[in-house]
Structure formats: structure tokens, C-alpha cells
Amino acid sequence: MKAPKWLFLIALLVGATLILAGCGGEATPCPEPEVCPECPEPVCPECPEPLVSDVPYAEKWAGSAHADATAEAFRHWDEEDPVEVPTDCATCHSSYGYMDFVGADGSAAGVVDAAAAVDSVITCSTCHNEATAMLDSVTFPSGVVLAGLGDEARCMICHQGRESGVSVDALIAEAGVGDDEVSENLRFLNVHYAAAAATQYGSFAIGGYQYAGMTYDARFAHVPEYDTCFECHDSHSLEVKVEECTACHTDVAGAEDLPNLRLVGSTVDYDGDGDVSEGIAFEIQGLQEILGGALTANGVVYNADAYPYFFDEAGERFAAWTPRLLRAAYNYQFSMKDHGAYAHGGKYIIQLLYDSIADLDAALAEGLHRNDAGHFDGSSEAWRHWDEDGMVEADCARCHSATGLPVYIHEGVNVEEPLSNGMLCTTCHDSYEGFTRYVVEAVEFPSGATLAFESPDANLCLNCHQGRQAGADIAAAIEGLDDDAASDSLRFLNVHYFAAGATLFGSEAAGVYEYPGQEYVGRFAHVAGFDTCVSCHDAHALELNAESCSTCHAGVADAAEIRISETDYDGDGDVEEGLAGEVATMTEALYAAMQDYSAGIGNAVVYDGHAYPYFFNEAGERYAGWTPRLLRAAYNYQYFQKDPGAYAHNGIYSVQVLYDAIADLGGDVSGMTRP
Fold first, then answer.
1. Which of 329, 360, 376 is a domain's end point?
2. Is 652 left (phi over 0), alpha (psi -120 to 50) or beta?
3. Do 71 and 174 have their domain in common?
4. Are residues 627 and 562 in the same domain?
5. Is pLDDT at 34 greater than 70 in this prediction?
């Protein structure tokens, strides 16, 4: 049976003095409380004030929103009858309700059993009790349970919102209407206020409406020391620890400067205003203005200060909801109600706004940008592939987790790593002072060769941009087999993606299958100062420093137009096209030769670059029955599919390999020239 209210009140008052370790600061000695008199029924007299002479952090707490007894968050129900906070609101709008929800009052956890008094702000004992000390997981409105949260689970119980993309989908499904059909069964679903945790955890929490077929950033990870609620906010005053931000963000003088922040990985112009230096807060604001305008154009008027927020042009509650309007309005409100969204998970918010704009009016999305460059695109398959597993497996962690590369550099091994939302500063930088990089003197390639640039910075790139296989692996697999005899022992070996380092070092790295008896060029030596990864590509945006190319290659607007010889390598008669065109034509010729050869042996092969394992039979099944000749050609074909910049990384090497692969299959090379 539940304890009498007066006993719970005494427990609450005495508990207010118990400051447990673990609220984001160092452990504080517990002051000794004065004895509270026994309470006769039915009235419990007030306990002595103060219970203790000095309550730690009391001054900070007293000035916070959690202690503001006059705020709407605690006074909203004053005019209700009865005057009480209902059970569906009490968890976050009453100390009694919160403690009821976590089971600190002796009741079952996870549910509020009774309405709570309106005069109950968030006090010491709300967060400091045995029940909250044990909290480690939170269930979000989407139904997703996130565990291993530690102390910040206390914050996330309330700062998660009241709705989710899942509930929006459920309401639309229940209405059973098409995207642009009005239904009286649709209504606006309000996420509520300050859903910071839902913003921070992105696609893990599904707080926003996530459009079908699109992928989204997951948990926004800041630097390791400032990555949780308590590490960024003072747990009592709730203020951001601005003075600690300045260690890295040297241009921040006060809280008013925080909206100007923008990480170096955010290199694109999200809102299309031409400004790529403004803070992420202003990129979000720009997208909000575009989406708000699109909603208005559809007859939806937003008023942030008046519930239910969305009205028609006559000022009445908007009622002509279609599924398309509802999901856009939900995302608009989701972005508006977390005023710190730019810091909690700005890229997730940007993606929600972009997709909402594109869904309402595709023309409005032209000129806008949704995702960052690959190293920082947390929504891409390169980072999200392991979400269902919960960890990035050891074989992949070096290049597909933010923490894997530093571990490999220090320990020389790959180990399982936590999921990442793209790279962090600490993936490549070993210090925040001057942002120096890890020093890598040389790198071992899959072929066994140990190679290096003169610049240790560029060697960092080689750790991942080297591929996962080498020509030697193909040679070993086909050793002793008849070139044209199908074998069930053979399987396709995938070089993986962007093996640019192996291409650049040519025969020194031997990333491709090099045909016996042929000679191949080694490292492509460009001009001094433009012969490494970081001298040709922006280290963060990853884009080619194309403006530098024009110094020598006058009149060339695109690197793909550059050619280094008048030789018509691909035999198409065009000696004006760039080397990229020569490589592209020869790559197409190799695929045609593969299809002719495979059809000739009665086992036609079909390539699909977007579906693993890439090579299929005509029935759409995984290709089997490889011959050594077809396998080595397919490996080389895939190699050039997965390094789209091969023509620039080492064009001559590329042409040599493609020529030899075509010739080996019996393809027509009569008009081609092998350099």
C-alpha cells in the first residue's frame, strides 16, 4: 500500500538535505539535518526552517528555472479544478510527480500514480535520492529505450519531448488518407518544450519526423570531456559552462556568442544564403524561415506564443491537415521548441528541416544543402551501418568510428569501438592547443608494402584510404587454377571504398591486380607542393583545391578536364577530353568485355554498384562460379568504380591496368594505347 501523504512530505523535506555524489560535480559532504517533529494526523506542521544551515549549491539552484515557483511550468494548473498537476504532466512539472515516476516515494517506477500539488518545483531531493542514483536508461516517446546513460538519465526523463516521428506516423496511418488529402482525423501533435535529449540523440531517439527513404544523423558527439548534459550545463544553475568553452572556441566571450559557433566539419551552406561562416544557429534559422514560408503558402499560420500554435488565415485553430502538412509542421515545431538545438544536434535539425521543405516544395530545396562532406556526414552508411549491432566491429573500427584511428595509431591494433556520428576533432588531432595532428611516419598497405608521404599529416589519410584488399590477394586466390575453369572455391574480393592512396602509389602499393609480364608505374609525382592528399584536398571539406590547379592548367574549370598527353589512350578519337574521360571510356570497355566473356562461358555477370556483393547473375542472385580470368577483371573493375578520382590520383597507372584487363578478357584494344 502507498505511504500516507504526510509521511511522504517529511521524507521529501528531509531528503532535500541529502546531496548525493553524481550530479555532475565533486562529491559534497552531507550536512546534518535538524530533527523534524513527529506529525500527528491529520495535519502535518511545517518543519523548522532552514532544515540545515548550509545547503550546497542553493544559491545557484534558487536562480534557475527549476526553482522558479512563479513560472508557467509550475503555475499552469492554478485555475484548474481541482488545483493539481495531472498525472500525465506531473513527472516533469512537480517534484512529487518526478519522484513518483522514478519510484523514490516507494511506488512502482515508470508511472505516476496520483496527481501532484502545484507548489512543487524541482528541489534537491528530486534528483538526489536512491532511485535517481540508480537511473541509467530512459524510454523516449518513440518507444526507443536508450541505456548506459549514467547521471544524465535524470535530465533526459523530462527533456525528451512528448511526441515523436513514430506518433506522427501512427496518426497518419490511423487517418488512412493520402499525402495531400485533408482529414478531420488529423490534428497537430506538439512535441512540447526543450526536448534537448531527443535533439542530441537524433535518429537514435526518433524525436523528429524522419522521412521514408532518408537517413539521419545519430547522437551528436562533442569532444569527450564535454559530451553530456552535466558536462556542458551547470547541474544546479542550468547555465552553459561558457568559460570552459573558450578553451577551444577562443572567440566566445559570453553566452551570447554561442549561436555563432560552427564546427570546421560544417563546410556547406545549408540554408543557401551564401554564408558558410555563420553559426549553425543561423543556418537553422534560415531553414526555419524557408519552411515557415512554405507552410504559410499552404494556409498554415504559426504563432509560437499561442497554443495550439498553428492557425488558419482567419486566426482559428488550423483544421485542414493533410499528412504532408502535418509532418512538416511537426518538424518545424520540433526545431522551434529546443532553443539550444544548434548545439544539441544541429545537423539532425537541419536534415529534418531540409526534408520537410523538399517534401512541401522541391523547388524551394534547390540551393540548400542537407549533408556534410563524408568524414562528417553522420547520416551516411559509412557511419550508420552498425546501428543495429550497437558497436562498430574491430575490422571496421579504424575507419568507421571516431575513436578507432587514435587507438590504432597508439596500439597498432583494431578493437571494437562505439558508434559514431562522423569524425571528431580528436580523430586526427592529438591536442586542442594548436590542433596538432597525430604523427604517422609510415603506413602498411594491404599488399604488405610500407609506404609514406614526406608529410606525416598526409600519412594520416593513408590509414583509411588504402583499400581492404590488394592484387596479391587475387593472385593467391587463383593460384594453381585454370584461367577459364569455373571454381566454387572462388569468391569476389572487394577492395572497399576510396583506395586513393593505393592508386596514387601505383605499383609500389599494388592495390590492383597487376598482370604478370607487364610493367606498371609507381607513385604519381605531381608538382611539388601539390603531391599529397592534404595539399590537393581541403582536409575538412574534402573538396579539391581546384583554384590552385588553374595556376598551371590555365582555362580548366574542372580537374576532370585536365590531360597530360596528346595520346588517345581509349581509342575514341578524342584527344581533347580530359584524362578522366579516357579512364571512363576504358572502364566501360572493361565491363563490356566482362559481359561478353561471362556470356561466352554460359554464366553472364551483371554489376550493381549500389548493392552488395555488387556482382550478380541474370536472376539477380550473388554471382558464383568465377573463373580466375573473370575474377581478376571484376576486381580491377570494382577498384576503379570505388575510386572515382583514380584519373587524378594516378591516371597513367589506371590506363595501364584497364588496358591489360580488357586485353586479358579478349576485348578489343586495337585502337587503344597502353602508356
1. 376
2. alpha
3. no
4. yes
5. no
| Predicted confidence (pLDDT) per residue in 523-577, tens digit | 998 988 899 999 999 999 999 888 888 888 888 888 899 988 899 999 999 999 9
Closest CA to 457 of 538, 546, 399: 538
pLDDT at 56: 86
Is residue 55 very low, low, confident or very high in pLDDT (cuts 50, 70, 90)?
confident
Question: Do 193 and 299 sit in the same domain of this protein?
Answer: yes
List of E strands, 611-672: 615-616
Q: What is the DSSP string of 174-225?
A: HHT--TT---TT-------S--HHHHHTHHHHT-S-PPTT----------TT
Cα torsion angle, 154, 155, 161, 166, sign: negative
CA dist 650 and 657 (Å) reads: 11
For residue 392, is it within any domain? no
Q: Which helix (H) or strand (E) holds 657?
A: helix 646-664
Strand 310-311 and strand 391-392: the pairing is unpaired
| Contact of 154 with 132, CB cutoff 8 Å | yes
Confidence of residue 48 (pLDDT cuts 50, 70, 90): low
278 plus 200 within the same structural domain: yes
Cell numbers representing residue 438 in the block? 597525430
| 674 within domain boundaries | no
User: Which residue among 321, 342, 376 closes a domain?
Assistant: 376
- Closest to 445 measured CA to CA, from 504, 518, 402, 394: 504
Phi-psi region of 510 (alpha: psi -120 to 50; beta: other; left: phi over 0): left
Q: What is the mean pLDDT of residues 614-625?
A: 97
Three cell numbers written together for 295: 507552410
Q: Residues 26, 99: one domain?
A: yes
Looking at the structure, tell me whether residues 499 and 561 fall in a common domain: yes
The set of residues, in sequence order, having a beta carbon less than 8 Å from that of 297 and lying 6+ positions away, is 361
Q: Are residues 213 and 104 in the same domain?
A: no
Residue 28 belongs to what domain range? Answer: 5-134
In this structure, the number of other CB atoms found within 10 A of the CB of residue 164 comes to: 27
Residue 7 reports pLDDT greater than 90: no
- Specify the pLDDT at position 434: 83
Give domain status of residue 557, yes or no: yes
Cα 400 to Cα 265, 377, 378, 430: the distances in Å are 16, 12, 11, 18
Residue 567 CB-density burial (10 A; 0-12 exposed, 13-18 middle, 19+ buried)? middle
Dist CA 279 CA 264 (whole Å): 11
* 442 located within any domain: no
Classify 146 as helix, strand or coil. strand
Element holding 60 (H helix, E strand) = helix 58-62
Exposed/middle/buried for residue 28 (C-beta within 10 Å: 0-12, 13-18, 19+):
middle
pLDDT at 224: 83
Q: What are phi and psi of 102, to 5 degrees?
A: -85, -5
Cis peptide before 406 (omega within 30 of 0): no
pLDDT averaged over every residue in the chain: 91
**Does residue 405 carry a pLDDT above 80?**
yes
C-alpha cell at 560: 576532370
pLDDT at position 551 is 83
Signed CA dihedral, 22, 159, 335, 179: sign only: positive
- Measured at the CA of 121, the angle between CA 117 and CA 127, to 5 degrees, comes to 110
Judge if 93 and 230 occupy the same domain: no
Residue 12 has pLDDT above 50, yes or no: no
Query: What is the tally of structural domains in the chain?
Result: 3
Q: Do residues 158 and 91 lie in contact, with contact meaning Cβ atoms separated by under 8 Å?
A: yes
pLDDT at position 549: 86
